[in-house]
Design a protein that fits this description.
Shape: globular
Oligomer: single chain
Length: about 210
């Protein structure tokens, strides 16, 4: 697996990440969602540098300009519900992308992940971007991957997360193909006894959209 750590070089990304973690700023759910969206935009820009491009000739009011545009189709697929704000950030940059959504929930009392809802276009031969803010154990992403790729094969797979734990990265490396790309905004210390990322930021879905039953 090819891993890309985006926050290793200081940028405005680290500023937004700091705000995401701040317990006082977290009280403003709209600002929390906006910061996730901004981080998605930064990640989309960095990822876009690795995609294939094609030469095009653009007609302007005064002549022809030779330039480049993205060559292949892109599909954005986020894991509900925490992935929605991150999805918006990516969609702001990949505005021609097709969009998919999938649910992943843990079955109470064990580590099994249940993938129930799936609404996604065909991604055969396209660039599939799987979006989820938090990579803790990695079980949800692997379950979603196994569910989505039962019948179709994308050209490339890019998994994009905001905060990752080393345990989750290790699990993806052991259970996903080598050709996958993992994009990580920032890497944290690890997981606690309840499999929460430490220091993390809490429950991204609850902070963005309110507590669930």
């Amino acid at each position: 697996m090819h891993i890309h750590y985006i926050s290793e070089q200081n940028s405005i990304l680290n500023h937004f990440l700091a705000q995401l973690r701040d317990v006082n700023i977290q009280k403003d759910s709209m600002r929390f969602r906006k910061n996730i969206e901004r981080i998605g935009e930064i990640m989309a820009y960095e990822l876009s540098k690795t995609l294939p491009y094609k030469d095009v000739a653009i007609q302007t009011p005064l002549g022809i300009k030779n330039t480049t545009t993205i060559k292949d189709n892109v599909v954005l697929c986020s894991i509900l519900r925490a992935g929605l704000a991150l999805h918006t950030g990516f969609m702001n940059f990949f505005d021609d992308a097709e969009n998919g959504f999938v649910s992943a929930s843990r079955i109470h009392g064990n580590t099994e992940i249940k993938v129930e809802y799936q609404a996604a276009p065909s991604f055969e031969g396209k660039h599939l971007l799987l979006l989820d803010p938090m990579l803790a154990t990695g079980h949800s992403l692997v379950a979603v991957y196994n569910k989505l790729l039962t019948e179709e094969t994308p050209k490339e797979i890019h998994i994009c997360v905001v905060i990752a734990a080393p345990e989750g990265i290790k699990y993806l490396q052991e259970n996903l193909p080598d050709y996958c790309h993992l994009w990580v905004a920032t890497l944290d210390d690890g997981l606690n006894e309840n499999n929460y990322i430490i220091p993390g930021l809490g429950d991204a879905g609850d902070l963005a959209y309110g507590e669930k039953l």
